[in-house]
């Protein structure tokens, strides 16, 4: 097999956080010998999450077996997932912000059982593809505050936010959130744009928004804009552009990426 060297930008802080966690875990379980050091294992996991390479490619690059790559990745991703903040911790941080941005995004998947109809829950009619729904909370500067576990892609954003407890948590803590029209009816904690007025019974057409309402929507869109940076950064990890593992593993992948994103901010 022929191989060639490859380059990748790696945050020293993210690498250090994961390497320290791996060293502590090895000490706890009493591991005596490994094919890779904690630092090299951390680099292996970051390379996988960043570039989404196959186990065979990683095994060739790090000169280990594919089964060893699988075990090392499961261990590192599991540790990163446990280090991700909880919703309660995120709400505590959000309470100190002027407002936060709430948005949902779809992560595509390809391993869905279609013969028994199990794919229906993962099919998004809006995006016309299979995926998982993830709720993202960002601060006004476009930095991640919290990213939810993955739900089937057919779930509506508002339903997903309620299932995760985001709406109730924001309402209780008095957090002000900016969101799009998908979160209409979220209560006083969620601010959404002005929607088109109802149909005029005289003309049978929708009444147009006033100039003041359009200006409000423009200002609202400017406030929501930085939240898209988190979605873009999340999908910048190639492993999440299209999740090729079992959909049940998507939540761990998202939590692991979230830990690295927070570590580098």
From TrEMBL:
Keywords from the UniProt entry: Metal-binding
Gene Ontology terms for molecular function: metal ion binding
Every DDE Tnp4 domain range: 102-259
Top-level taxon of the source organism: Bacteria
Record InterPro entries: HARBI1_dom (IPR027806), Transposase_HTH_dom (IPR027805)
Domain Transposase Helix-turn-helix, chain residue ranges per copy: 34-85
Cofactor requirement: a divalent metal cation
Protein name: Transposase
Organism expressing this protein natively: Streptomonospora salina
């Amino acid at each position: 097999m022929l191989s060639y060297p490859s380059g990748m930008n790696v945050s020293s802080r993210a690498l250090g956080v994961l390497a320290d966690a791996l060293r502590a875990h090895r000490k706890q379980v009493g591991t005596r010998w490994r094919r890779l050091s904690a630092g090299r294992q951390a680099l292996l996991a970051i390379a996988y999450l960043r570039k989404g390479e196959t186990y065979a490619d990683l095994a060739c690059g790090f000169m280990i077996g594919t089964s060893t790559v699988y075990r090392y990745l499961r261990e590192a991703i599991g540790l990163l997932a446990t280090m991700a903040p909880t919703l309660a911790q995120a709400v505590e941080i959000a309470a100190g912000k002027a407002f936060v941005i709430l948005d949902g995004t779809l992560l595509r998947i390809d391993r869905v059982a279609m013969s028994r109809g199990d794919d229906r829950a993962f099919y998004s009619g809006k995006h016309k593809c299979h995926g998982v729904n993830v709720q993202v909370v960002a601060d006004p500067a476009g930095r991640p505050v919290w990213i939810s576990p993955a739900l089937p892609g057919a779930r509506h954003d508002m339903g997903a936010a309620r299932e995760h407890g985001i709406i109730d948590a924001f309402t209780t803590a008095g957090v002000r959130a900016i969101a799009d029209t998908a979160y209409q009816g979220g209560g006083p904690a969620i601010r959404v744009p002005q929607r088109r007025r109802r149909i005029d019974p005289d003309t049978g057409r929708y009444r147009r928004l006033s100039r003041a309402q359009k200006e409000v929507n423009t200002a609202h869109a400017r406030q929501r804009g930085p939240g898209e940076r988190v979605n873009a950064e999340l999908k910048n990890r190639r492993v999440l552009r299209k999740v090729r593992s079992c959909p049940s593993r998507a939540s761990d992948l998202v939590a692991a990426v979230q830990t690295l994103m927070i570590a580098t901010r």
